[in-house]
């Protein structure tokens, strides 16, 4: 899921809006609290006045005893006083609760006699005024004294419906006020931010993106030398210095790249030389220690074959021995050829002619019937300085490797599977370093050259093996099917004629080998 990053304008507006909402919210809360306190002052005074009137009634009776006779008289006087001052539009309820937790007198006639109010027990312990504001009622509970003794408590409930309605209207007004301020802030803030900050920054970004070399970086603002203008001036100085150093930096990078390339080539050549020197010594030792005994064993095998013409079993074993001895002898000879290649004189030859002769060589063999062999040769002659036999050896090795890869893939696929063809394509063309197939190898190719491409639809080469395929003795074939010297010898042959071999492969789809050779009279390096 794509995450959208808010713009600078949005972040600033949201921040200001958040701060404004917090400020107006706090102001609204304080305003509501103050207004509510002011509005309940009148109901509070009215309730306290009722309590004082009840206390005055007790004081004026002259009764100084709580005996039952005097207490009943006191209840009558308090009931009469409640009836006189009770106004339904002002009071919700006025009642007197005795110390015995029974209702002495009340403005409501629904209470049965001797009704007890147990939740007043805590009040007679504290003997303090208790003022509470409920949903639509302001309740005042106050002690009533007979002399120094608290004999009862007055519970006066004053209606505050009007106060609640006023506060509700105030809520609506404050919400409208906050909404209006928010709307004004968004409109005016968006305009001012666009004019003062966003548009100058957008011009700054646009000019920075369009900056090239030593362009003069300018930004005009109507606000004078503010922070954005100073930023533009600083960027102009910085980009000017960058422009002055750009060419020098590019030259240094190019020089370092060439030096690094030369060092890598020298290192690779040194490693290869060491490897070849070691292989040369190894090959000489093998030829001396193994070559002669192999020749003797092969001779004795031929003698035994002559003497066992009638013994088919012994003859079969001897044939197998002869075959393996010849394979050992071939490996030793290939190793010698790789370590100490024979000297050859290059001559001018047409690359197309070499390809045609090689294809003709395979046309009479089984391989021609098992794969589709396609050749696409350049219309004109491609004259190169090479030993034609050695280039044929390279091409034959690549064709045989491609054949093995396609045969392996054919064995892996279901025989009834459609849509795949074992196809080997050989092409020749005149190319330069700008050729699409050589874009990745520009640093090794210059000028016109002959490009020989061998492509197959076989198993391909794993990416982890691409850098190893030209190493001596490296092979992915099954034991007994290859010794890992074919590509190493091919690379050695091509490089001896100032050429290169490149490979591109996709595992499971096929491989393409590209041989680049200098055209007669031109160089690729």
Task: List the topology elements.
Elements: H1 8-39, H2 41-61, H3 68-85, E1 91-98, E2 103-106, H4 121-126, E3 130-133, E4 137-146, E5 149-159, H5 161-209, H6 227-307, H7 312-339, E6 347-350, H8 351-363, H9 367-370, E7 372-376, E8 383-386, H10 388-412, E9 423-431, E10 449-456, H11 486-496, E11 500-506, E12 510-518
Parallel strand pairs: 7-9
Antiparallel strand pairs: 1-2, 1-5, 3-4, 4-5, 6-8, 9-10, 10-12, 11-12
The H/E string reads HHHEEHEEEHHHEHHEEHEEHEE
- Number of continuous helical runs: 11
Number of strand elements: 12
Q: Based on helices, strands and strand pairing, what is the structural class?
A: alpha+beta
Average pLDDT value?
Answer: 78
Quaternary state, please?
Answer: single chain
Largest sheet: 5 strands, antiparallel
What general outline do the C-alpha atoms trace? elongated
Roughly how much helix do the residues carry, as a percent range?
40-55%
The gyration radius over C-alpha positions equals 54 Å
β content, as a range?
15-25%
List the uncertain runs. none
């Amino acid at each position: 899921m794509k995450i959208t990053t808010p713009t600078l304008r949005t972040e600033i507006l949201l921040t200001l809006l958040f701060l404004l909402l917090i400020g107006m919210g706090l102001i609204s809360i304080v305003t509501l609290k103050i207004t509510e306190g002011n509005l309940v002052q009148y109901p509070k005074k009215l309730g306290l006045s009722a309590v004082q009137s009840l206390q005055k009634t007790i004081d004026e009776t002259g009764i100084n005893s709580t005996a039952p006779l005097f207490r009943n008289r006191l209840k009558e006087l308090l009931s009469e006083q409640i009836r006189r001052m009770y106004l339904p539009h002002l009071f919700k309820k006025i009642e007197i609760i005795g110390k015995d937790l029974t209702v002495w007198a009340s403005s409501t006639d629904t209470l049965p006699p001797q009704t007890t109010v147990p939740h007043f027990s805590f009040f007679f312990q504290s003997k303090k005024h208790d003022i509470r504001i409920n949903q639509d009622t302001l309740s005042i509970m106050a002690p009533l004294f007979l002399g120094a003794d608290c004999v009862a408590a007055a519970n006066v409930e004053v209606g505050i419906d009007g106060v609640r309605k006023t506060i509700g209207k105030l809520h609506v007004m404050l919400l409208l006020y906050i909404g209006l301020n928010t709307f004004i802030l968004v409109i005016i803030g968006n305009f001012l931010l666009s004019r003062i900050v966003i548009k100058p920054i957008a011009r700054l970004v646009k000019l920075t993106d369009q900056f090239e070399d030593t362009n003069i970086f300018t930004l005009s603002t109507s606000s004078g030398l503010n922070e954005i203008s100073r930023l533009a001036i600083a960027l102009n100085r910085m980009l000017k210095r960058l422009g002055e150093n750009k060419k020098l930096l590019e030259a240094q990078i190019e020089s370092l790249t060439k030096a690094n390339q030369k060092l890598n080539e020298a290192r690779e050549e040194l490693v290869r030389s060491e490897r070849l020197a070691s292989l040369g010594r190894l090959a000489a030792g093998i030829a001396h220690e193994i070559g002669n005994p192999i020749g003797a064993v092969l001779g004795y095998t031929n003698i035994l074959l002559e003497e066992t013409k009638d013994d088919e079993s012994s003859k079969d074993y001897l044939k197998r021995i002869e075959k393996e001895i010849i394979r050992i002898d071939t490996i030793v000879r290939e190793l010698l050829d790789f370590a100490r290649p024979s000297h050859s004189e290059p001559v001018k030859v047409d690359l197309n002619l070499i390809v045609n002769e090689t294809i003709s060589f395979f046309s009479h063999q089984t391989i021609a019937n098992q794969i589709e062999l396609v050749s696409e040769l350049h219309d004109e002659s491609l004259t190169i300085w090479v030993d034609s036999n050695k280039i044929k050896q390279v091409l034959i090795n690549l064709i045989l490797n491609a054949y093995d890869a396609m045969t392996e893939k054919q064995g892996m696929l279901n025989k009834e599977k459609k849509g795949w063809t074992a196809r080997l394509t050989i092409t020749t063309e005149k190319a330069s370093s700008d050729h699409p197939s050589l874009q990745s190898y520009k640093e090794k190719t210059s000028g016109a050259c002959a490009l020989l491409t061998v492509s197959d639809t076989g198993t391909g080469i794993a990416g982890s093996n691409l850098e190893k395929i030209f190493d001596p003795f490296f092979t992915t074939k099954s034991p007994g099917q290859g010794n890992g010297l074919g590509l190493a010898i091919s690379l050695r042959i091509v490089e001896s004629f100032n050429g290169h071999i490149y490979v591109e492969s996709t595992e499971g789809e096929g491989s393409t080998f590209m041989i680049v050779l200098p055209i007669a009279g031109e160089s690729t390096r």
